[in-house]
Write a structure and sequence with these properties.
The protein has about 475 residues and is an alpha/beta fold. The chain contains 11 helices and 20 strands. Helix 6 runs parallel beside helix 9. The structure holds calcium ion (4 copies).
């Protein structure tokens, strides 16, 4: 080996060692962030009051909305001056950009730098960290024997008390969303697309695969000027900026099953919709953490698909934090202006959202619905947040059986599980009335409840959502 060859081999070895070191670091960093599922409820309680910022260097540090009239070249000049880079422009929220500081300065410092340009900047905020309302997951509990007449043949249907509650396991008979009666009107439609903004969805799950959205040939691939072009066959992954939204956690897959696991296919459970299209929008990672930027990026994707002819009508959001983000609020507003209802979990801290706001459920927007969780006795679940002014409805959210990774099924509890019941009912309403507006949809949903005394003063509607009432003419 001559000297030059030796140097080349030495350099390659050094690069490989460095890569291995970085991968190891990333892995350590990931496991450091990942909470043990069994401790989730406690972690959520302890952490939810803190406004944590995301510190990974690869992520953009700030979200800045420039005033209308500030030109793109001017924005580029400014970012260069600060040694920053525009990571992404949010096309459907005019003037909003995510900005990566190349010196990796503290996000609050970077935000303050832009905020000081008061003539040019509407607002600037750190790219906040978001965590899911990760519930406890358990193997599916034992089944009861009695099934109501005209039940779907899915073997776990007997355990889906949220859909039909016969009073088993100490529950209260008919404390359910009255799905059986709703299904006399409609069992859903493959024309309706519901986006699940979460950890992704296992789109190969045998009880979901028939009801997953796939991009039709006449809809162009997703193309973003800053992020690139994606062959988005199944949805979008804003966390890794990839086309593939495969779930690596399970949470999003569980939520998707509640909305639309295939009904009456002799397998697993039935969704509130037997038939629907689920579009996974992954922005939360394996450990259940994400950023406001990636949530916004995924919402921007959903709006883009809508503008390209995909019938996205609902975004189901089973996550949140106490951190207010103007940028996220603006993105959700833009979704509403594009005919998309946004249904959000009220949170799992047992607290009052009127006095201690939880987002995105608390954004006071005409397309947002905030959902609390009930148990099988029509009682507010002990973990559920509430709010006479800010939490709109309650839905079943305890001991909910649904789809999980690797062809399995699990039982989980959380406002995460209550939220997709409401999203599912909204999808049924759209199936029955395809031209319904967001405004009418929301109004009818909030009126379609069974009043429950214990919810008086706890949620705006004072009741549990009822699918049959939501579909009544
Ligand atoms: Ca963009
Ligand atoms: Ca940076
Ligand atoms: Ca991203
Ligand atoms: Ca099924």
């Amino acid at each position: 080996m001559n000297r030059n060859n030796f140097l080349i081999h030495f350099a390659i070895a050094l690069v490989l060692i460095t890569i291995a070191g970085v991968l190891g670091q990333i892995d350590r960093w990931r496991s450091g962030l990942r909470p043990a599922t069994s401790e989730t409820r406690d972690l959520a309680r302890n952490n939810s009051g803190e406004a944590k910022q995301f510190r990974a260097d690869a992520e953009p540090e700030v979200l800045v909305r420039f005033k209308s009239g500030v030109s793109r070249s001017e924005i580029e000049r400014l970012t260069r001056r600060f040694n920053d880079r525009i990571e992404d422009r949010i096309e459907y929220v005019g003037g909003l950009q995510s900005i990566d500081d190349l010196d990796n300065a503290d996000p609050e410092t970077v935000a303050a730098q832009y905020r000081a340009l008061a003539d040019l900047v509407d607002y600037a905020e750190p790219n906040f960290r978001i965590e899911t309302e990760l519930p406890d997951f358990r193997p599916v509990a034992e089944r009861r024997d009695e099934a109501p007449v005209n039940s779907p043949n899915d073997p776990y249907f007997n355990d889906q008390w949220a859909l039909f509650n016969s009073g088993e396991n100490g529950g209260k008979s008919r404390a359910d969303i009255d799905a059986q009666k709703a299904w006399e009107q409609t069992k859903g439609s493959e024309e309706v697309v519901v986006a699940v903004l979460d950890t992704g969805v296992d789109y190969t799950h045998p009880d979901l695969v028939a009801n997953m959205w796939t991009r039709p040939d006449n809809v162009p691939q997703y193309s973003d000027a800053q992020l690139g072009t994606f062959n988005d066959r199944f949805g979008f992954n804003a966390q890794s900026n990839l086309a593939d939204p495969m779930d690596d956690n399970g949470h999003g897959t569980h939520c998707a099953g509640v909305i639309g696991a295939e009904g009456d296919n002799d397998l697993g459970i039935t969704g509130v919709n037997w038939n629907v299209q689920i579009m996974p929008l992954k922005f939360l990672g394996r450990g259940g953490f994400g950023t406001t930027k990636d949530a916004i990026e995924a919402i921007n994707y959903a709006i883009d698909r809508k503008q390209n002819g995909v019938n996205v009508r609902i975004i189901s959001a089973s996550w949140g934090s106490t951190q207010y983000s103007k940028a996220l609020e603006d993105a959700i507003r833009a979704a509403g202006e594009n005919g998309i209802l946004f249904i959000a979990a009220a949170g799992n801290s047992s607290t009052n959202n009127d006095s201690r706001p939880h987002y995105p459920s608390n954004y006071d927007l005409p397309n947002v619905i905030s959902v609390a969780a009930l148990d099988r006795n029509d009682s507010l679940s002990s973990f559920s947040n509430y709010g006479a002014k800010t939490v709109h409805v309650a839905a079943p959210g305890r001991d909910i059986v649904s789809t999980w990774l690797k062809e399995s099924f699990r039982e989980a509890s959380g406002t995460s599980m209550a939220t997709p019941h409401v999203s599912g009912i909204a999808a049924l309403m759209i199936a029955a009335d395809p031209e319904i507006t967001v405004e009418t949809l929301r109004k009818r949903l909030l009126a379609a409840t069974d009043k429950i005394d214990s919810l008086n003063g706890k949620v705006v509607s004072g009741g549990r959502i009822n699918a049959a009432k939501a579909l009544a003419k």
